[in-house]
Structure formats: structure tokens, C-alpha cells
Amino acid sequence: ENSTYLLRRTAGDTNIQLFDISSISQMRQRKWVWWLALCSYRFACRLEQLQNKVLSPHDKVTRREYRERQRNLLNNTMNLLEDLADMDGGNHETIAAAVCEHLADTFLWSDEAEGDVGPRDASKPAPWASSSQPYRKVTTDCLNKAHDHLMNGIKKLTPLLTKAREKDSPIEIEALSTQLYGVHHKLINVCLKLADIHLQNYFSSNLLQSLRMAARMLRDVTSLVEPRDIFDFSKDESDNSCLYGKSILLQYAWLWEFCGHFARSYAADPLWRERGHISGNDLLSLFREVDSACSNITKLCFRASKWRPKTSVSVASHGQVSLQSLSGIVVLPEDFEEIEASVLQKEGCHEAISTSKSILNEQTQIKRDNRLVLVAASVCYSHAVDSYLFLAEHSSDAAKDGQAAVELDTIYKVSTKADEPVAPLLRQRLGDASNEIGKILLAESRSVLLNENSSDRDMNMSHVSAIMLASAQFWFSQGLDQFTAGKDLRNIALLRCNLCQCCKIRANTNVILPGSSKDLDKKSNAEIFLQKAVDHLVSAHEAMGERDADSLTWDMVSEELAATLLVLGVRRRQSSLAGSSSSQPLFLPGLRLTPGAENEIVEPMQRSCKIYESLGTAHARHQAAAAHYQLAMYFSKVWTCQRDEQKTRDKLAAA
Predict the structure, then answer these.
(1) 3-state secondary structure of 90
(2) 3 state SS of 18
(3) What count of other Cβ atoms lies within 10 Å of the Cβ of residue 288?
(4) pTM over 0.70, yes/no
């Protein structure tokens, strides 16, 4: 009852002595307060060791009791240290920070929350990080308490580190930096787990705060260990300092992954506006702040290893896409040169790009926010994928006996076999974001072409449509690269269909677009791009392999392929027989086609007939009839100019 006792046993003696030291401790003697604080701390540490080494992981009741006792001892230690500070006995910041860290650990046990954490909503895709980072089963309340204790530890140690740097004391600086690194490391993981929870519940303000805090802590922890060359992964395997760099880079990847998922979820789910009360500008401000705080990490890491990003959207777009430039308009240098040489002068090309951006900025608020946020999501995901790729390439350099604070198991899991993709789920989401941006720009390109005649602008709007179409193709190509790297066959097929639509628009447009030839007429260019559309759809079938892989997608691609083949055959027939009217057969032998030219017309239409007939639906049967009619139209025009009677009979029979 509010008394303090001390147990003492001399070495080799079987007797234990019990001393009542209540009266002594009440005299507030600094030496005894210090000893009592250390005793409480050591007992708490001993309880933690017992939980780790002695207790069964299934004995949750006893473990919970031990943690409660450990928590009480640590709180008693903190109170005694505060009393000691009031007695002018010193603040003892390093021990106080260690106590704060241990207090946080008592709230971060995975079995603390068994049965208390609800299942994730299946309709909301989970970030890959949420399945690999620590504290997956810890409740929000425990995470918040751990967060507060870790922040207290950082506040106690930071002034000490500043003083040590002023005194230029290398030993103190290294010791304090190492201790601060451990606290920061746990705090970043806590913030990221809180972000994962807030992401499921539309808690936008809490989510923004957690991601900002994680970014700032990453910036601070990088400055703590940067002098140790932690990002030089070419060191000898016996040097474990690179494990600090790999751990920081892994948390950096998790942070950008959560940012990307936040952006993608916002663009797809209107509840973020209704329940979260957040705008697109709030997200963009967050991402730019994260980029500003963490940009030094990849610079140090990639530069030291002379490694170039492989999925960076900014690199692929030659700097036209970044968190400061999110319009989505991308005209690659080679495309710019072709547009400039074919239809526009340099100033006119820049004017068309500016007009494209202004048209996009005139979209409604929701559409504009969704487009900007989707572009930002692609940048975020590309940062995360590049980090995972870097870790996968350098994971073999990690020493097996690394620091306890570094998630070595997770780092090793990033590395996969030679025939397996790295982070396939993230690649799928990056490809999905790129595909959505491409679809937005493709729709705008069509809209500009349809409204060209009614537009009041001085600029030729077909040129503006060309810029948007070139940008859409860039994004579709980016998505295709990611789906191919992630071996996502269904999405590869669907994205090939979108690229096919781009080629069809190019075949029908009045403007010579990138990839067109000035030396060929419009009809020849149309046939070239229709053939490219066919090639994309054939590649989609080849990627899927067989219909059983996804019958619905296979049939959709087949129907699109049949329609494209039919249009290609009709175009070739019209261009080859352009010298005659559509209703009259040919009478001049000089207009007779060579076997090769005739096959180029007949073969696409015959393939179209076979595909439509194989589909078996009512719509496909109607289309098959149309394809047969177009073939009959061709044969009925050419039977009169054959070289002999047998050929004439063959054509009439075919008709």
C-alpha cells in the first residue's frame, strides 16, 4: 500500500532480505530515486525477454498480463525520472527515450489486437505494402498510443544530438544517431500502418497527416545516417551499413505506394468527396510535399549505385510529366519533329500543345481533378516500382546477420526468381492508371474532332486532336509496358484494344499524325494504320494464348478484330478500284489486279467472315452477312476483266 521495498540476496547466500525503504524514498534523495528508476526499467526489460523467449505465443492471456505489468513498470520509471529531474538530478534523456521506445513496443504486439481488427473491405484493393509491413494486426488505438510515445522519445533526443554536433563529438553523434534511427524507423512504420487504416475509412485529414509525418520522418532519418555511406551498396558483404539504406528505401517505396493508392482510390471513388470532404488540390499538395521531403533519398541511392530508373514516367516522358506538370499532354521528341515537319511550324506545334492543355483545363472540376490525380498516381506508383526493382537487384548484397530494426525478410521477399515479375500488383496499378489517363485523352481527342466545325477557335482543331491522340498513345504504351512486365494477360489484351482505337482514329483523320508518311497519300496512310490496328488485336490474342484464359475478353477482342479486318479490306478495295464507280463492273483489262494485290483485299474480309461465324452470336451473324456482302461486291466488280473464261467463272461463283 504505497510502500517501496527492496529485495537483496548476497551472492552464494540462500537467505533473501526484504528492506522497507519507503521512508528513505520519501526523503527524495536523488541516489535512491535513480536506483529505483533503473530497477523498474530492468524489471520491465526482463519481462520483455520472458515474453520473447519463455512464454508460448499461444498463451495470450499471460502475455497480455506481462505487457500490462511491463507498462506499469515503464510508466513508474518515467515518473521517477521526472521526479529526479525536478530534484536537479539531470534529465537523463537517452534513458528516458529508451523507456518511451519500450512503452511504444508494449502497444505494438501483433496478438494485442487478435479479434479486434475487422476484415478489409474486399471492394477496396489493398496496397501491396499492407501485406508486407509490420503491425498488420495492431488496433488504431494502440498505434496512436505508440505514436505518441515514439514522438516523446524523438523530442527528448533531438536537442542532445544538436548539442553533440555543436561540440563536434563523433562518439556522441554516432550513439545518438543510432538510437534516433531506431525510434524514427518504428515511427515511420506506425504512420504507414495508420495511413492504411485511414485509407479504408475515408478519414482524409488523418490520412494526410500520417503520410506527411512519414515523409518528414524519412527525411530526418536519412539525414541521421547519411554520413555513413548507407546508400553505397557496392561495399563488402561484411559491412552492414547498407542495410540501413535498404530499410529506408523500402519504407520510401511503401510511402509512395500508399500515395499512389490514395490517388487512384480518389479518382475512382466519389465517396472521398462526399465523406472525406477532400479535393484534388489537397492530394496534389500532399504529393508535392512528400516529393520535396524524400527526393534526396533516391538521388543518394541511385547516384551512388549508378542505377537508372526503369519505370519512371518522368524519364519516359522526357520530363514532361512530374508532380509539377500534371496535364497529361506528352509529345515525345520524335513525334514533335514529325508533326512539325508534316503539318505545323515549330511555333504552331507549341500553340497546339498550349491549346490542348487549355481545353483540358476547361473540363468540369471533377473531371479535371480526376485527370490530374490519375497522372499524379502514375508518378507515385513509378517511384514505388523503381524502388522495389532496385532492392530486387541489390538484395543479394545484404548480409544475413543485419540489424534487428531492418526488415530483412521483407527485403529478401522483394527479390524474385528470374522468370517472376517484381511487384506485379504495383505494376498492374501503374498500368491501370496509365490506361485511364489514355482513355481520358482519347475521348477528348474524339470530342475535339467532332466539334471542329462548330469551334470558334482560330487554331485548326484537328492539330489539337493530333496532340491529344499522341499523348493518349504515350499513356497506353506506358500501361502496356507495365502489364507486359507484370504478365497481366487480360489487361494486355484490353490495352491493345485501346491502341487499336488510336490507330483507327489515325486512319480516319484529316491530319498527318506522328508515324504517318508525307510521301504517301491519305488512303495509303489509312491502310497502314488499319494494319497496325489489326496487328495490335492479333498481339492481344497471342498474349492470351487461348480462349479458355478469359472467354469474355477473347470474344471482345475477336469481334473488334473482325470489324477492323472488314474495314481494312473495304478500304483496300476502294483504293484499288478507285477508277470505277461503285455500281459498275470493270471492263478494262488494264484495271485487272495482280494476284498479290487481290489477296490483300480478299484475305482480310475472309478472315473477318470466319471470326464472325465462329462467335455465333446474333450480332456476329449479322456482321458475317455484311462481310460476305462486301466480298460479293468485290467479285461482282472484277469478274469482267479476267484473262480467261475459267477465271471469270471463278469470280462469278465467288460473288
Answers:
(1) coil
(2) strand
(3) 14
(4) yes
